[in-house]
Amino acid sequence: MDRLDNTVRPYAWGSPTAIPHLLGIEPTGEPQAEMWMGAHPGAPSRTARGTLAEVIEADPGRELGARAVARFGPRLPFLLKILAAGAPLSLQVHPDLKQAEEGYAEEERRGIPVDAPHRNYKDANHKPELVCALTEFDGLCGFRDPAAAASLLDGLGVDSLKPYVDLLHARPQEAALREVLTAILSADPAEMAHTVAEATAACTRLGGAYAPYAGIAHHYPGDPGVIAAMLLNHVRLQPGEALYLGAGIPHAYLSGLGVEIMANSDNVLRCGLTPKHVDVPELLRIVRFEPADPGVLRPEACPEGEEVYETPTEEFRLSRYVLAEGGAAHDLTRDTPQILLCTAGTVRAGDHELRPGQSVFVPAGERAGIWGAGTLFRATVIV
């Protein structure tokens, strides 16, 4: 096993205290948003043998195993993170695999630099993701029923929102959601800023179901994403609960600390709550305008104490072990690559003692026994 030394990304929306508190270190006063564990070229984990990306590149068959290489190629197909949201992230969607391949090829053909601010597709991969709450965790996930969204908007008593309310009542569901989101994102910026200001004042006054949107508007005053957010389901996860975000599902994380795992991709199309580029036509091509329950996941008990968060994605499989002092050791040996992350207590993984926020990479086939008193998350692939 390789102990991982991981990079913390200082994105502006990050909490200045949540990750330091988990790690048991003093805050720096700066935002600390995400700690990355994996081989992503943007911030690969470091090991005693070099970066994890270099270790895998030197011998992918040994590190990843033959089955994972045959299915996903010579790269670690997932990225594991600890995510600490102190402010709302951008409202966003991710493409499916075919859309990503087509979008990436088209932008390559047009010669758009990969680091250009207006580029949508950084790679040709999809980005399904799963977030599991370590603390109470607030987010937005998927469209509300249009009638429920209309009721929420109508309750604000803002005249300039009434056309959206009428559209949500008058049309078939998917057409209504598409037309209203298009209208919000295409509105005159000055007029929309005025609408958002009125809506913000009403949300602040009314509280209750409107309180999350007042909080969003505090961070993004005048942003059309404040109104777009009200089309989505608000979700509050309790520790141990999770959300799965598939392709085309609009979502945003608002606050809280969680473990996040995703396919190894940077592809994001933004809908709002951001100063970054919003490509409205491409966004509308990717979004799935289907109202649905957000589908809160709870872990399913498996043999040997493993609790699995089931998803339809092959690139990653996330599970956890809640270990008690004096309990039996568990053998996690597997012919696929693994990252083991401790989030509470003290867990022994082979020769490594892991405390909260510490992690190891386990090459395919490497013996991996765990024991101790604490919580350990296990990330691997399905092949």
Shape: globular
* Major sheet description: 9 strands, antiparallel
Total helical elements: 12
Low-pLDDT parts are none
- Give the overall pLDDT as a whole number: 95
Structural class: alpha+beta
Helix content: 25-40%
Strand content: 25-35%
Distance between the termini: 21 Å
Q: Give me the Rg, rounded.
A: 22 Å
- Strand segment tally: 21
Would you kindly provide a written description of the structure presented here, covering whatever features stand out?
By secondary structure, the chain is an alpha+beta fold. It is 28% helix and 28% strand. It contains 12 helices and 21 strands. Strands 1, 14, 15, 16, 17, 18, 19, 20 and 21 form a 9-stranded antiparallel β-sheet that branches. Strands 2, 3, 6, 8, 9, 10, 11 and 12 form an 8-stranded antiparallel β-sheet that branches. A hairpin with a 2-residue loop joins strand 18 (338-349) and strand 19 (352-354). Helix 6 runs antiparallel to helix 7 and helix 7 (162-170) runs antiparallel to helix 8. The model has no long low-confidence stretch (mean pLDDT 95).
Question: What structural keywords apply?
Answer:
alpha+beta, 28% strand, nine-stranded antiparallel β-sheet, 383 residues
